[in-house]
Amino acid sequence: MYSQGLDQPGESPAAAERDAAHEAHFLARVAAEEKIEPKDWMPEGYRRTLIRQISQHAHSEIVGMLPEGNWITRAPTLERKAILIAKVQDEGGHGAYLYGAAETLGAAREELIEQLLSGAAKYSSIFNYPTPTWADVGAIGWLVDGAAIMNQIPLCRCSYGPYARAMVRICREESFHQRQGFDIMLKLARGSGAQRRMAQGALDRWWWPSLMMFGPSDADSTHTGESVRWKIKRFTNDELRQKFVDLTVPQSEYLGLEVPDPELAWDEASGHYRFGSIDWREFHEVLRGNGPCNRERLAARRAAHDEGRWVREAAAAHAAKARA
Amino acid sequence: MSDVRWPLWEVFVRSRSGLEHRHVGSLHATDARMAVEHARDLYTRREEGVSLWVVRSSEITASDPAEADALFAPARDKVYRHPSFYDIPPEVKTL
Prior knowledge:
A two-stranded antiparallel ribbon of chain A has the order 1-2. Chain A has 324 residues and is mostly helical. Chain A has helices at 13-31, 44-69, 78-103, 109-117, 134-152, 161-189, 193-212, 224-229, 237-255, 280-290, 294-307, 309-323; strands at 265-267, 272-274. Chain A is globular. In chain A, helix 5 packs parallel to helix 7. Chain B is α+β, with helices and mostly antiparallel strands. Chain B has a single domain, classed as Phenylacetic acid degradation B (Ubiquitin-like (UB roll), Roll). Chain B contains two helices and three strands. In chain B, strands 2-1-3 form a three-stranded antiparallel beta sheet, with helices on one face. The longest helix of chain B is centred in the middle third of the chain and has 12 residues, at 32-43. The interface between A and B is medium-sized, with 34 and 22 residues.
């Protein structure tokens, strides 16, 4: 179905020449802000980068259902429970949109899911942290979804059409996630002393992991250069992280909560907040699978996948029988 | 850990009556009925539609982008199909 599969590099001098011409045409289209669609010619590196990025993103949405799903049965009111169910359902939907976008590049959903379950694929480090209190659900919506939006809005203009279109839908829905989280934090911040302490505790736990969500600093990021040239990425990790800090600190002041960073200070000259250095060792440990909840999250995903197998098989058998 | 694979469907949503169905994305389902139900859950959680179409992806025949130039070339030299091709004297109204 994907004709560019015929154009493997290095087949012959003629093929190499054809590839170079294709690549020049591709880069010109990208530079002119044209969208690349599934059956268009694209460099293999572009395809691989997109499959990796989109599937990691999809995995993050799917694993992201777990820390909040824990709280569905314990949400403090029926309304909060309904909201949380809707949010978690959205995350599942986002995962499905994204797997769909990855499939347009020739990846099979089952293989991508298999990579997640076997531990071969990565997902966002943030979902390997625990949610010990209700305030953590608020902090996830406010900070984690806030950081996600910051990352995702530029992706709506990504050069790959199906990914950009999925991101438009996701961003539209994600805004509700952030607001409901801030709303939880606001209620707690205006509540009793114990509730304020609970909110502060959640901010203390989620602040630094949220900053890590933007990925390694630009100096250490291996993929940034190429992704920017291909217009998959529009801003660097550090640019987006700075933007997030600048927008979030005033919100935390409004809540009357303290950002857990003694070095945080407004810098009049640059018009930005300066902030302390990130513990990259922790980030890499979590990515390597040694965060507080990595094993628990993957075990929960595997159990859900295994326990659902009979349903998938039964539905397929039923459809086969109906066709016969 | 090989798994049973469900076929891929393309989903089209009519956002309100008077508008055409528009492609919104794809999903996996075992049959047409499940595809409609999944499309409802996946693409219309916020009342985005009043009608859904689902089509097996394998049933769609697409033109080849590599052949697009040749395929669409016949229209390229027929500018007279556009009203702007014709110079109408300014005195002539409502034409």
